[in-house]
Design a protein that fits this description.
The chain contains 14 helices and 12 strands. The protein is α+β, with helices and mostly antiparallel strands. The longest helix is centred in the middle third of the chain and has 97 residues.
Length: about 525
């Protein structure tokens, strides 16, 4: 019924549009004929500018209902005759049409030239409004459409009521069965076959489909049970894996903490070694001062002074006649020279003692400054960091007669944690010292170079001519707990590699083998350049 109504509506709409278009074209043609005749009749009135004759001719157009306004004007746009409303006159003037038609919806404006003797003398304007005719046409077609639609709907209702018992009721029962199955998920329900036509065939096909769905549902439920068991097993495995990962995380945290403590111990050990070496020099200087004071001739000076004071009133005779008195001035002169030399030696030892104590203060202050900024990234000069690490080990290098060769190239600042860099460098320098001690060489040297290999990183290379590293140990040198020294703990290089990685750099090693020394390369990131404002 709905489709029939829509089709009828579209058909009547198309027919109405066609009729409206035809009406408009017919009206325009009719208006052109009327305009041509009227313009011919108005030729004399225009020629003689007879307003009464023009008004009488235009008044005859009022008998045509579609013409709502007419205007006759001369070439200078002076009106000769007019009938209609002020709105119509304004619309005619606004159009400024010289000749031909102007159509706006249901309104048609015609401009017809008035040519009395072969020369255009004026213009006749006719304005037609087809609104009334269109409304009548619309009412006519609306009434026809309503009657046809009512008849169609009545016929459709009568036919559908007859088909309801044969088609709709069985389909509704089939739909009710499908709804019951969907609500209760019971695929054992079957639809009743009422007739043997196409609906009956559809019912049989529906029941067969239910049979297949029931079997597939049973198989699916079995698969779901198996899948649920697998999911449960997988969940247990995931829980076990999460527990293992948590245990691993805790172990890694403990390992990192141990590495951090080991790194702090490396730095502290370096400081203590250097302080110990300086303290040895302090002890030597203090011993020399004590020994010189013990061997001082100050008691002899006091004895000579006692001899002089014992000759009260007879000092001149004593110095002139007594053999001992005669020797006393020379003795006092030599004693003075000895005291002067002894004073110089004591001043030198005391000065050396002060320098050693100042060195201890500098090392301790340096360690304190590094400890305060631990964990903070700064833009630092790489060679300053190297010099600090060397200063903390210089005492050991001097005591073991190790030559330190510095090869510093101009490089950009690096963005690092100075405490971690100091930890790494002190460990590398101490390992180099131990490697040189084990080599038993007479010529011991350590070369420390600083260079920028690219625009991203700075390399600090620590090379020695010590015992070297065997090929099988090169791959294990940075492993946690690996060491070749009996008193070593295996934390230094491992924690150093972790610290370098945490700063965005790396720590690597090369060696030609045992007896050929080793070269460690610490790569540090260059500090980003701040653009000029």
């Amino acid at each position: 019924m709905l489709i029939s109504g829509v089709v009828l509506l579209l058909a009547f709409a198309a027919l109405f549009c066609f009729q409206a278009y035809t009406l408009k074209q017919h009206s325009a043609h009719e208006l052109a004929v009327v305009g041509e005749i009227t313009a011919h009749n108005c030729a004399a009135a225009v020629m003689f500018k007879d307003e009464d004759a023009a008004a009488q001719i235009l008044g005859g157009l009022k008998t045509m209902p579609q013409i709502v306004s007419a205007r006759l004007e001369l070439m200078d746009q002076q009106g000769l005759a007019f009938f209609g409303s002020a709105r119509d006159e304004h619309e005619i003037k606004a159009a400024r049409l010289k000749s031909g038609f102007w159509i706006d919806g249901n309104r048609i404006l015609l401009a017809q030239p008035v040519v009395p003797t072969g020369t255009r003398e004026g213009t006749l304007y006719l304005l037609a409004d087809l609104q009334a005719m269109t409304s009548q046409l619309l009412k006519l077609y609306g009434g026809i459409f309503a009657l046809v639609l009512a008849a169609s709907l009545l016929l459709a209702f009568l036919l559908s009521s007859q088909f309801l018992r044969f088609i709709t009721d069985p389909i509704l029962r089939l739909a009710g069965t499908a709804r019951t199955i969907a609500d209760h998920k019971d695929y054992s329900v079957r639809a009743n076959r009422i007739c043997g036509d196409e609906v009956g065939v559809l019912t049989d096909a529906f029941n067969q489909m239910l049979t297949q769905i029931q079997s597939q549902d049973s198989a699916l439920q079995g698969a779901q049970r198996e899948l649920q068991e697998q999911v449960n097993a997988l969940q247990r495995e995931i829980n076990e894996r999460e527990q293992a990962q948590e245990a691993l995380r805790i172990s890694q945290q403990k390992l990192l903490e141990s590495s951090r403590l080991a790194g702090m111990a490396e730095v502290a050990t370096g400081v203590l070694h250097n302080v110990g070496n300086v303290l040895n020099s302090v002890n030597v200087s203090a011993g020399l001062v004590v020994e010189k004071l013990r061997r001082s001739k100050a008691p002899k000076l006091a004895k000579a002074a006692l001899l002089l004071t014992s000759q009260n009133g007879n000092l001149a005779e004593y110095l002139a006649t007594d053999p001992n008195g005669q020797k006393l001035p020379a003795y006092l002169s030599k004693l003075g020279e000895f005291f002067v030399a002894e004073n110089v030696e004591l001043l030198q030892e005391v000065d050396q003692l002060g320098r050693n104590i100042e060195h201890i203060k500098e090392v301790v202050a340096m360690q304190q400054s590094y400890a305060k900024v631990s964990g903070v990234f700064e833009n630092l000069a790489a060679h300053h960091l190297v010099e600090d690490a060397i200063s903390m080990n210089i005492g050991a290098f001097e005591r073991h007669h190790i030559v330190v060769d510095r090869q510093f190239s101009p490089v950009p600042l690096v963005r690092v944690d100075r405490h971690k860099v100091l930890q790494i460098l002190i460990n590398l320098l101490r390992n180099a010292k131990y490697a040189l001690d084990e080599s038993k060489r007479a010529d011991k040297w350590i070369t420390i170079s600083v260079s920028a290999v690219n625009d991203r990183s700075v390399h600090i290379v620590v090379a020695d001519n010590g015992i070297g590293i065997s090929p099988e140990n090169l791959t294990r040198i940075f492993a946690h707990g690996f060491t070749t020294r009996e008193e070593g703990h295996g934390f230094g290089l491992h924690s150093g590699a972790l610290a370098a990685h945490a700063m965005g750099g790396s720590l690597s090693v090369t060696s030609a083998g045992t007896g050929h020394g080793a070269t460690f390369t610490l790569e540090l990131p260059i500090a980003p350049t701040v653009p000029n404002a």
